[in-house]
Amino acid sequence: MTTPDSPESALPELTRLRASIDNLDAAVIHLLAERFKCTQRVGELKATHGLPPADPAREQQQITRMRGIAQAAHLDPEFAEKFLNFIVSEVVHHHVAIAESHAKEATES
Fold first, then answer.
1. What pTM does this model have?
2. Homologous superfamily assigned to 7-108
3. What is the distance between the alpha carbons of residues 41 and 4, in angstroms, rounded to a whole number?
4. 24-71: per-residue pLDDT in tens?
């Protein structure tokens, strides 16, 4: 018998919440893909114009900005900063690879 306090009574809401989480996870992945498309182009521009792969001043501005957004959204700013740092480290890694590829192409021509 299902009572209001039994584990089975929570299943419909758990199912609904998990479906929402699945949708949100998919949206996050799609947003990250779009973000990386933009940062790929940024890396190409930097490499073409001899700019460094990393921009610490811009990164710090973004951290400050994202911490404020996180706080306003009731998300732990420390978590938001860690998440952004992870993304930025991947972006810089890609930018370094792009710069190396451009440098190799320049020496081969």
1. 0.83
2. Chorismate mutase (1.20.59.10)
3. 55
4. 999 999 999 999 999 999 999 999 999 999 999 999 999 999 999 999
